[in-house]
Amino acid sequence: MNSNRDYVEVIYNETDRPLTSYPSKLANHLIDRYVLSEGSRLLEVGCGRGEVLKGFIDAGLVGHGVDISSATSQYYPEIELKVTDLEHNQIPYEDGLFDVVYSKSLIEHFYHPERVVGEMFRVLRPGGVLLALTPDWDVNYRMFYCDYTHRTPFTAESLRDLLLVHQFTDVSVERFRQLPVVWKYPKLFLPLTELTRWTSPRALKQHSKWIRFSKEIMLLASATKPLISD
């Protein structure tokens, strides 16, 4: 009998990680950046508390979630959530169902992330878009294993190659700061985040979102499922 507590409930409790407007801002940024159409069917793999997924839905996408935790249903019971362990099971949706498959801070949690990426490819329609965020190992190697559930680190090169091997096309991988002001004014604020990253003590990141997200750089990958797969 498994007596372990729910990972999301423990790590993402509202005392340590209160609900904010950031997930909605991220969803809207990605919609604008990748020109995601209203009414598009989106699956978030590893949706956690469901905050980003709710942001996509509020912006007009038809959102569905899958996660090992049932936390999304506790926060947003109106969202369709399927609970399963993707380390051992398929994504519980049919082939080619979604226009967009999105994940954030997910693939690094698997011993075999290639299986999950293969499942993402399967449930995307031909021409559909994959968007995936994961910590950048080149920058985060000192912090990566602060999360005991992290299994597989990624660099820009390994993430690109993983997607190419799984038949994705138009693959792009870039560094991504989780700071909305940087999205809006990159020329002004990117240099400041770099300065912060190199000069601020690591301990201070617990008390400042600016310092934390200047140091914890993500990789943002986008890719397309070809219209005709091999």
Report on this model:
With 230 residues, this protein is α/β, with parallel strands linked by helices. Helices cover 35% and strands 21% of the residues. It has a seven-stranded mixed β-sheet with strand order 3-2-1-4-5-7-6, sandwiched between helices. Helix 5 (113-123) links the parallel strand 4 (98-104) and strand 5. The longest helix is centred in the C-terminal third of the chain and has 14 residues, at 186-199. It is globular.
Helical region count? 10
N-to-C order of helices and strands: HHEHEHEEHEHHEHHHE
Secondary structure: helix percent: 25-40%
Oligomerization category of the chains in this entry? single chain
> Stretches where pLDDT falls below 50 for ≥5 residues?
none
Broad shape: globular
Beta-strand percentage range: 15-25%
Tell me, rounded to a whole number, the average pLDDT. Answer: 92
Number of strands: 7
Q: Report the sheet with the most strands, covering strand number, pairing sense and barrel closure.
A: 7 strands, mixed
Query: Could you say which structural class the secondary elements and strand pairing correspond to?
Result: alpha/beta
How big is the Rg? Answer: 17 Å
Alpha carbon gap, first and last residue: 43 Å
Q: Going across the major beta sheet, what is the strand order?
A: 3-2-1-4-5-7-6
